[in-house]
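Appendix B. One record, verbatim.
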Amino acid sequence: MPDKIGRYEIIKTIGQGAMGLVYMAKDPAIDRTVAIKTIREDSNLFAKDAEEVKKRFRREAQVAGRLSHPGIVTIYDVGGEGGLFYIVMEYVEGDTLDKIIDSKHLPDVDKTIDLMLQVCDAIGYAHKNGIVHRDIKPANIMIVDKRYVKVMDFGIARIASSDMTQVGKIMGTPNYMSPEQVMGAKVDNRTDIFSMGVILYELLTGEKAFPGESITTVIYRILHENPTPPKKLRLQLPSSLDYIVNKAMSKEIEKRYQSMEEFAKDLRNYKTLEQPKELKTTKPEAEIEDTLSMSTMGNAPAAEKRAEPKKPESAKPPSQKEIIKQSNTGYMIMGALLLVILVGAGLFYLKSRPGPVIKEEKKDIQPAALPPANIPEKGEPPKPVEPVAAKNGSISVRSRPKARIFINGKPAGTTPNEITNLPVGEYNVALKHDDFPEWATQVSVQENKTTEVGHSFIKKEVKKEGFGALMINAQPWGVVYLDDKEIGSTPITVPKVPEGLHKVRVVRDGFKELMVEVKVAPNKKNNLSLKLEKK
């Protein structure tokens, strides 16, 4: 770690950015703590295109330096020396949003909306100044004092008036990229809106909208798949948030929110938002392309040409062979129809003819007690009894985090899961997790319906044991036993005694043994004064 960079005195290393180390430093000129983002020219990042990296680094300072907003990290200075480039910026203490998401302690819905509105305000301000961030992700959003937002890293931002737009290159974090961005096309403010929709989805559900172990998988899903609606992962979420997320992440840029202000308006009114009756963002199957390969990642896949209907050929007079063939075919069809008619007539005659055996059985077995309405008419065969169809339903169970499912005490897999073909009735559904108290509920299964069950576990509260200090004095002095263990002679102080009742015994030759109970209060000094009596 260097002692100084430029005039700035390095205090410690605080992280590693996309292009180099980040230091906490002091500006001696004005006695201000700053953060310094660096990149060395001998880094691997310069191996392929050194000039491009330098331009990007300088552009980060140029772009962010134009912005003055409480929700955006302020840039103070930029420089370079000895092959080292650096940007001096506002030092901010807090947690990045990705750490909050990874901790699985997600904020509640109202808090999530508040954080998103702050980001919308900051990014919307940048948009009004002609700047598109292009790399909005949880790692670039800092939460200060658990409530204020600071957006960082305009390192690959695009100035609308600049000629430095990179077309055909992927620049950014794939999981949060827009479809047009992963295709290497030109982008505008709506690409940031797509990224914001992805972050909102992750904050609401705790799951990535477009997961994948490889870049190819992630990009294919961004282009062709829609994520599971948030309400299906967290049943308590309002359906209006499904609409907001879907619109923000629309693959068709014209159907997306057109500005941060429009996005923020729906977020602000999510509790009363009336969504359109029809919301369809899924592409028709005919428009879905084959799996994306790495070789086509930079260019949009060409749409397949639809098969055009063949034009009818000009009519030609049939030949003599075709006439004979058509005639033979006609005779065969007429013969088949005649055969079917004859067979049908014969079956009808057999069914309508009265059967003597049936008449005789009716005379022998007809019970007098049966109502006349149930007795078949003369000559009518008895109708077969149709089996009653089983009345079944299903139970769909989800939880956060995943848990083991028990239906009426029997294991039924782990969440999320749908248990099908359950007879109509009442069921006990229990969820078990080693780190949480067991949870159970009673549900009703209805015919041909799915009963949904959802639960979010709350961490067990582990009560921490408190300790207090115990000072024991006796006149005259004596040997002290604390809970039947000798600890020394008076006066004595025991600095760490568990809270609660304890037995204290003091003995000395020639004096009566003295035993008392003392209650130790946590985080306090507890005094005990005793007086021994002679035997």
